[in-house]
């Protein structure tokens, strides 16, 4: 009951007109962290968080609607050809990207996850495919970027959840707080993201997977 009260109190304090450290992101993110620590509460209260933050609803739909999941995976798989060196996934896209990379039949230089909900232990993690979740075997390097007040990226340190049998470590980056703490554009502007893209493409121009450059990147 104490955990439920803490979560309810955090949600009551949400003010949609405020943002930043003590605004919407910080309040809902705190409530999400409380719920994520208790599977029983998560099953009963997470619907409130879905309404408060549409990205969590999108993630839930992807994880629970098989037809939607299959369609998303088919579209992503069609983009990952032999020249793709980098996959970038933001928010729900990071979940789709992780599952797509698990199924790759060839090496991939870099996976970049931005504002990722992969760290939601009781909401996302047990519903990923395949189980148990691990480092995607085809991926050589994994970079994760999560803002401190990003409600979707409750746990910015994914290393404990996705072990690598080869001893590889997820590079976790937590940039300074900023107003647009979950927007894709803000994440793409981060230095850690830029460095990962440059390293993956080895000086080649960064292009969308639908482009025709020799070294290609898929953004999801």
Question: Could you give a quick summary of the protein structure above?
Answer:
By secondary structure, this protein is α/β, with parallel strands linked by helices.
Spatial strand arrangement across the major sheet? 4-3-2-1-5
Sheet having the most strands: 5 strands, parallel
SSE order in H/E notation? Answer: HHHHHEHEEEHHE
Number of strands: 5
Distance between the termini: 39 Å
Shape: globular
**Low-confidence sequence ranges:** 10-24, 204-214
Q: Mean pLDDT across all residues, rounded?
A: 76
Number of helices, counting only DSSP H or I runs of 4 residues or more: 8
What is the rounded Rg? 17 Å
Class derived from helix and strand content = alpha/beta
Percent in helix: 40-55%
Determine the strand fraction and express it as a percent band.
Answer: 5-15%
Notes on the protein architecture:
This protein is of the alpha/beta class. The chain has 2 domains: 2-64; 67-219, no CATH class. 41% of the residues lie in helices and 13% in strands. The protein has 8 helices and 5 strands; from the N terminus they run αααααβαβββααβ. It has helices at residues 2-12, 24-36, 39-52, 54-64, 66-79, 92-102, 184-188, 191-201, and strands spanning 84-90, 108-114, 139-145, 171-173, 216-219. The chain has a 5-stranded parallel sheet, sandwiched between helices. The longest helix is centred in the N-terminal third of the chain and has 14 residues, at 39-52. The protein is globular and about 40 Å long.
């Amino acid at each position: 009951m104490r955990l439920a009260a803490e979560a309810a109190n955090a949600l009551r304090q949400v003010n949609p007109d405020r943002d930043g450290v003590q605004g919407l992101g910080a309040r809902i993110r705190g409530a999400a962290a409380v719920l994520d620590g208790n599977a029983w509460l998560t099953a009963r209260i997470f619907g409130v968080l879905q309404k408060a933050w549409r990205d969590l609803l999108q993630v839930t739909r992807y994880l629970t609607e098989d037809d939607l999941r299959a369609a998303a995976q088919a579209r992503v798989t069609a983009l990952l050809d032999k020249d793709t060196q980098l996959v970038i996934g933001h928010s729900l896209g990071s979940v789709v990207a992780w599952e797509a990379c698990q199924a790759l039949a060839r090496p991939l230089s870099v996976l970049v996850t931005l504002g990722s909900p992969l760290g939601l232990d009781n909401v996302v993690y047990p519903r990923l495919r395949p189980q148990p979740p691990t480092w995607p075997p085809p991926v050589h390097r994994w970079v994760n970027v999560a803002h401190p007040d990003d409600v979707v990226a409750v746990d910015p340190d994914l290393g404990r959840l996705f072990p690598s049998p080869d001893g590889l470590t997820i590079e976790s980056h937590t940039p300074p707080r900023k107003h647009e703490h979950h927007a894709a554009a803000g994440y793409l502007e981060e230095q850690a993201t830029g460095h990962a893209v440059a390293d993956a493409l080895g000086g080649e121009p960064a292009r969308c997977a639908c482009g025709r450059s020799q070294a290609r990147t898929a953004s999801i």
